[in-house]
Predict the 3D structure of the following.
Amino acid sequence: MTPAVCRRKRGLWRRIVDFALADVNTLVDGGLDDAAIEGLEQVLLEADFGVDITLELVEELERAASRGAIATEDDLRDVLRARLTDLLAAADPGADPGAAPAGRAGLCGGEEGPGVVLVLGVNGVGKTTTVAKLAARLRGEGQRVLLAAADTFRAGAQAQLRTWAERLEVDFVGGPPGADPASVAFDAVTAARARGAAWVLVDTAGRLHTQDDLMRELGKIDRVLGRQVEGAPHERLLVVDATSGQNVVRQARRFGEFLDLTGLVLAKFDSTARAGTVVSVARDLSVPVRFLGVGESPEDLEAFSPGRYLDKILVADP
């Protein structure tokens, strides 16, 4: 039996180039033809840029091409990079586009008491694994960390987080099945103070963004933490599945109605296949992407840097 031939899917940049630079003479003479425009739109939509951003990017390329500004791959890259940089800056206008967050694993803490991070999201996006990855980053910086298992409803949730705590050699606080998640958060901060922990990472139960009662429960946890430590929670990180496309924007918008989100973690992220999700979130929500989950091990969490992100997606396939 003849073995199947495996064909590796071309990266985002290679596909853009194939359509936009299919005929350099066409670009020099007056712009993109209809076939190139249609192909570009399809590529960008497949990469989850969304309709509005796709139209903006294609229009920008058309304008640049019509004035003779695109004749080579480098010209095309420069035009796209400039526009994408502007879109990403909308979410975090004070950020350095070329730098990753420095110190404390890229997290913001309080001046007094432990830094408190509330991690939330819908079911099955990888919240607990993300909490473990954040703990590993902090632990690697010499910080003492406590994990709080505020998911008291899902079978095995407490055991899963406890296993991570033991593996990473960090502290753990949980509660009995069905306990009030806010009380677990309260106990966790109390324990962190007693044990000298610098950080409390609160893992919450997954909930659909359409479940208003469970969304309000997050508000209660948030208020309890605020009464325990001034300014807490210092981070409210929404974990989303990067492979769910434009649904990421809908989830983030809904969670943002109940809590003031400080950032997003894109789990299951493939920088070439789902590149547009990052830009869509920045443009539509003004919530910065803080971390990218790129694997299952504790080390597979990258602090998001717009500059490095653009470097990854605007390169040819190796």
Observations:
- Confidence is low (pLDDT under 50) at residues 1-10, 96-103.
